[in-house]
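Quick one before lunch.
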Amino acid sequence: MKKTYYITTPIYYPSGTWHLGTCYTSVVCDALARFKKMEGYDTFFLTGTDEHGQKIEKAAQADGLTNVQEYIDGKVALLKKVWELLGIKYDKFIRTTDDYHKVAVQKIFTKLYEKGDIYKSNYEGHYCRPCEAFWTESQLVDGKCPDCGRATEIEKEECYFFRLSKYQKQLEDLLNENPDFLLPVSRRNEMINNFLRPGLQDVCVSRATSKWGIEVPFDKNHIIYVWIDALTNYITALGYESSDDSLFKKYWPADLHMVGKEIVRFHALIWPALLMALDIPLPKKIFGHGWIYFGDEKMSKSKGNIVDPFVLTAKYGVDSVRYYLLRDIIFGNDTNYSLETFLSRRNAELCNGLGNLMSRTAMMIHKYFCGICPQPTTPGYFDDDLIKTANSVYDKVKNHIDQLAIHEAIAEIWKLVNRANKYIDETTPWILAKDPNSNGRLSSVLYNLAESLRLIAVLLKPFLIETPEKILASLSCTSPKLFKDAVKFGGLTPGSEVKIIDKLFDRIDIEAEIIKVKLELNMEHNESSQIDTNTKTETPAAKPLINYDEFTKMDLRAGIIKSAEAVKKSQKLLKLSVDIGYETRTIVSGIAKYYTPEELLNKCVTVIVNLTPTKLCGILSEGMLLCAQNSSGNVVLISPEKPVEGGSPIS
Ligand code: MSP
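Model of the 5'-O-[(L-methionyl)-sulphamoyl]adenosine complex:
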């Protein structure tokens, strides 16, 4: 039977905006899950959303929505889009508002109550409303919440408690005797020194002041407080306490709970204690990663820092974003994100390092061997070192991944990228090509380069999404499912076609780009500085010619507008639901000055449906309506001359 690997992200609060930091845990878990899959593990990757609690209820109200579920549904849909954009391929997405989860949580709560591990009492403590956490006097830092640094309030209420103190000794043994249970070591020390040493106190696990949650089954005045509801997702998602617990039997205990550092306490103390109380085996490992900071102004866009995953991926591609998150951040440490660092890595390693290796190799195979991968016939100096590096890289990468040193794993792959680039300079194929007696040697050199690229692509598969597939396609190789079939040097078949492909990554002028981005972001946030479309426009100059293939890349379809409404906070934008045949899309269009929502209903319009989604005034727009603008600046929609069904292709 195949070995299993169960990995989880925390479940995300669907409030606020999704930014680069929120994506971090999931990108990391996705890469690890893909790596384990390629190692042959039967992998299960769980992610989801933590949808209960006052914080969510308040966020919905602040957004003007009284229907909390509707608010959450919108946020979850956006999160799933972000995951899709970043190539995050989970096996299950749990929502704590899912019925099966609610039922299982109630059963768990009752079980713990009947066992005497949950009891009712009064609680008075320092409550941090944003974090929804009670703190003791000694845990406060400068009188403020130790997690978020905000002021706390004294709150008193009747609630149910979980007997965490009962598990003090077992938890001490767990952390002391299993140094690998909680990593990095600094987090383990923190748990021991800050929480276990002063002595654990029982924790409040219900609230009487909020209604947005799962009811305590035997006391309707209380809802189950976020941590029991949230932590148990890791087992309810597998069917624990449901009629079908086959996944639970197969995958539990989890191999790895990946969490941010601020929630280590809940995962390394409360969660194991709950599992002990339920007589369920403990997860094998918890890793508390660091935080991504965004400079002084945490999320400031005007500083020229893009932190919106939609914008970042649309501008620079999914692989640049994943590469930055996985390679730049020393896994476990905090980091300070800046667009400059992001672009520098992209330029140096993706564009110059990997991109150049790909384009130089493919160009030379075209130039000297008409695009056919040559047979290696004549070994020579420098080959051994390249081949040795290539053959040892997988074991080293695997070793780093086993240690969860993800940045080191990628750095190891780049040692091969750099070695191969150096090999070009050492072997000078352009000089060999001029020497009539060196044709055999040239064949070997170019084969070795193409084969190094194949190996690099295979090893990059868990980390990047598009690039490995582009490289493999250029080498006419099928994309392997397992490492074991593909990591030995020599797998590339001589005689196969090597295609020249578009540049993997364009080089970016960093200084100019940062200025451009600053201007764009300022414009986006300052309506008055936006270009006024009502001013008289000149007929624009003709654009350069494109070929038919370029034209057909656009997926143009007829769409039927099903609903239209003004976008709050904008005088220009309308939010539309457009039926494009196979689905209904939300499209935000800047036509509010030219059409009322009512006159748009059921109108047949032209939609470009494969444009990268982008957010406008916080709404994800998944396409664009085509319009014409006349000389006085008025905008009219382009409609098929006679109405057709939504989704009809336009060509
Ligand atoms: N709902 C709880 C987790 C319950 S798990 C049983 C929660 N949600 S969260 O949305 O606030 O955070 C989800 C994850 O995103 C956490 O691991 C958190 O550390 C991570 N990040 C959110 N912002 C982050 C950064 N700026 N940097 C890195 N990761 C951070 O906590």
